[in-house]
Amino acid sequence: MTARDSVVPSPLLAAGSPAGLYVASPDGRLVDCNDELARLLGYGSREEALASAELLLGGCLASGAGGAAGAKAPSTSANEGFLTRRDGSAVRVMRTETLTEARGERLVVGAIVDLSSSRCTEDRRRELSEELRQAQKMEAVGRLAGGIAHDYNNLLAIILNYTSLVMEELDERSPVQKDLAEIKRAAQRAASLTRQLLTVSRRGLAQPVVLDLRDVVRGMDGALRAAVGGAVELAIALGPSGCRVLADAGQLEQVVMNLALNARDAMQDGGRLSIEARAVRVGAAGGLHDAHPAIPPGRYARLVVSDTGSGMSDDVRTRAFEPFFTTKPRGKGTGLGLATVYGIVKQWRGYIELASQPGEGTRV
């Protein structure tokens, strides 16, 4: 009679335990196990694992239990290590085992906990906590910027209106006309900045229409090539199926152009800028959902802009979407490019992520 025949399956092993539970013979062969252990080992069911003649729980306490009769073996062990799965891959586990006897036969009762999944869950919890903190900070800064922009917009409207009135009253040949024109241009540039701030705070005026993201990118081909210059190779990839979104066409163009200009500035010695627009589906599990668990399942339009530039340090990356934050020299940037992108994406209930490492480029 074999050990498997002599042991009545334990109700504990049949229960829905989060750990892999098992009983093994002295040579490491399974006598009984639960479904969770079968899953950890790469089998479809408990019955399939138990029926496998090749399955051995190598490295278990049982391997030391088959020595000379009367030899004193340790009764309990606990260690962290790797478990080899059916496909040859290894998974990091915590393993606890106890040596016992049943009907005169030595057996090992053990439990295995998958540390890789628990650690991934903890890492993801920390990531989500950081994402929430960043979103709250962006919301607060955006509200402040939006409030200031609204007040400045009113003041600039007065300056522009009175400047235009004075210019109309004066003779066109008056030497003051040139000065007034400079005042008007400066006020218009300031008004443009306040519009960007209102976009950051998601309070800007927009005209939403249903459009295909691929058409937006396709229509910008010439403007993008002129903006990035000849030293940067531009590659545009468009998906085969419709990529419809409800958004403001001008704002989407601003998103694409801002990201392209940021990429160009990161490639002072030239490089490659890739822009991809396609429809994707986020499922309930696997693929994109595993990589982006905060995104509800469904069909989405995805825009990816990546470059081969200098990349960002962790400190810069965590602040990249903040209004007025810039690493460019004074006078070379307003610090509103990526902040505007963030505001537009959030205004249309989208999701945005930035991945970057020094020397490895950036992907948004």
TrEMBL record:
Its EC number is 2.7.13.3. SUPFAM superfamilies: ATPase domain of HSP90 chaperone/DNA topoisomerase II/histidine kinase (SSF55874), Homodimeric domain of signal transducing histidine kinase (SSF47384), PYP-like sensor domain (PAS domain) (SSF55785). It comes from the Bacteria. Residues 147-364 form the Histidine kinase domain. The keyword Phosphoprotein applies. Keywords: Kinase, Phosphoprotein, Transferase. GO terms for molecular function: phosphorelay sensor kinase activity. The keyword Ubl conjugation does not apply. It catalyses: ATP + protein L-histidine = ADP + protein N-phospho-L-histidine. It is an enzyme of class 2 (transferase). PANTHER family: SENSOR HISTIDINE KINASE, TWO-COMPONENT SENSOR PPRA. This is histidine kinase. It comes from Sorangium cellulosum (Polyangium cellulosum).
